[in-house]
Design brief:
Strand order of the largest sheet: 8-11-9-10
Strand content: 15-25%
Helix content: 25-40%
Order of helices and strands: HEHEHHEHEEHEHEHHHHHEHEEHE
Largest sheet: 4 strands, antiparallel
Distance between the termini: 50 Å
Length: 402
DNA sequence: TCTGGGGTCCTAGGACCC
DNA sequence: TCTGGGGTCCTAGGACCC
């Protein structure tokens, strides 16, 4: 989907079309603020000047999505808001409306599945589609089917998407970016040398900032540069698995199937604080946040029907270093009190002397709740008893080691 | 005024077992 | 002057993706 989160906002505020907008960070309710100020007026009638601007933003958020006009200023996904504000102070900032985004996500995926049932979920705004068995899926190299999908999504949601059609997922993903927004691009196997090799290495899905930097140190800048190396040389420099994969990727080889079903591996909740907190000085505040994270991850598990056996914590220090600790229990659980207790023990194994900027709680080794025989069956209707938790951690001595 | 939140997968060492 | 060879599970960290 093209600039998905921002495009969803433009459905509600069409008067902002063509303006630089960034989505992210926000904690305040813009709709509420605006409808108070403009009581009785439709949201689409509120003048653009009334919207909050990036230059007035305060906080630690990053940009989730920027509209194409905002991208002209060098603003993009994952950039800190404060940095973006320097590049484009006049951009409008809107918080993410997750409910609305999820609703449109479900809609566009359902539209696709009606047309081509073999679909792999790749997050909220992206899918892989297998055209192989779809009647007419090969016409004009897939362009006819791609156009049908595009139009059907547009009719159902008012949103545009970009589609890449290729012999495999790796190339299709790259192709999908050739004609953004609202584009279709077909890449045939014989196009790899002309269309793929000139691209920077970072365009390969699986080569991130670290590998890019290492490739640059080795004087490799384009995908063609990688393809020109022997597999042995790549294995020597990047390891057996990654080096061999990189060689295949550079030659456009990828035999991964489109996977239509998958089970979650873990569920987690984490939060970055408005200001860095200290385990001792801010212990009550941290304790409350910690309990809340445990409660929310437990709610997520129950709502989705899962239990887990590995309980873990994550924290990020003021210097941005990250530490994780986890512990595997004998029994599966989705009980907030059990999670809180195990996570509390994990917390005692980590250095709490430094200021923290983030705290997270994770439950892994998941299984479907209905597939696990419940030994000490907790009543199905039992509500999380939050009151029973005491913020007993984050106190002096909690950071003892050894 | 740096740098979100939710995930997956991989690696590597140690424990433990046969 | 020797000290196996696999396999699985657990844990911590890191790369990467949307």
């Amino acid at each position: 989907m093209d600039a998905f989160f921002a495009s969803v906002e433009l459905l509600r505020y069409p008067q902002l079309k063509g303006l630089p907008i960034v989505i992210g960070g926000g904690r305040r309710d813009v709709d509420e603020m605006l409808s108070e100020r403009f009581a009785g007026r439709a949201l689409s009638q509120i003048p653009p000047e009334a919207f909050p601007l990036l230059k007035d933003y305060v906080g630690r958020g990053v940009i989730t999505t920027a509209t194409y006009p905002a991208r002209q200023f060098g603003v993009g996904s994952a950039m800190g808001m404060m940095k973006a504000a320097k590049l484009c102070p006049q951009a409008i900032v809107l918080p993410v409306d997750f409910d609305e985004v999820r609703r449109h996500s479900r809609t566009f995926k359902a539209v696709i599945r009606e047309i081509a049932p073999v679909v792999e979920d790749r997050g909220i705004d992206e899918v892989y589609i297998d055209f192989t068995e779809v009647p007419g899926g090969q016409r004009e190299g897939g362009r006819v089917l791609a156009r049908l999908i595009q139009k059907s999504i547009q009719d159902a949601t008012g949103l545009t998407c970009s589609i890449g059609v290729a012999p495999n997922k790796l190339i299709a993903k790259m192709a999908s970016e050739f004609n953004k927004p609202n584009g279709i691009s077909i890449v045939y196997p014989e196009d790899v040398q002309t269309k793929i090799w000139p691209l920077p290495v970072r365009k390969i899905n699986g080569i991130g900032p670290k590998s890019e930097a290492k490739l640059h140190r080795l004087h490799l800048h384009t995908i063609g540069d990688i393809a020109a190396q022997s597999q042995d040389w790549l294995v020597d420099n990047f390891g057996q698995a990654y080096g061999a994969w990189m060689h295949d990727a550079a030659w456009g080889r990828d035999d991964r199937p489109v996977v239509t079903e998958s089970e979650p591996v873990s569920m987690s909740r984490e939060t970055t604080f408005d200001r860095d907190l200290h385990a001792v000085r801010d212990r009550a505040e941290l304790g409350a946040i910690f309990t809340d994270l445990c409660t929310r991850v437990a709610e997520d598990l129950r709502r989705k029907g899962y239990v887990g056996r590995t309980i873990g914590i994550k924290l990020r220090y003021d210097d941005f270093r990250t530490a994780t600790r986890d512990q595997t229990l004998d029994d599966y659980t989705a009980d907030p009190a059990v999670i809180r207790r195990a996570a509390g023990l994990c917390l005692k194994r980590v250095d709490l002397g430094r200021r923290l900027r983030l705290l997270g709680v994770r439950v892994g080794k998941l299984a479907r709740a209905d597939a696990i025989p419940q030994t000490a069956a907790p009543a199905a209707a039992e509500a999380p008893r939050v009151a029973e938790f005491t913020p007993d951690l984050f106190q002096p001595g909690a950071q003892e080691t050894g």
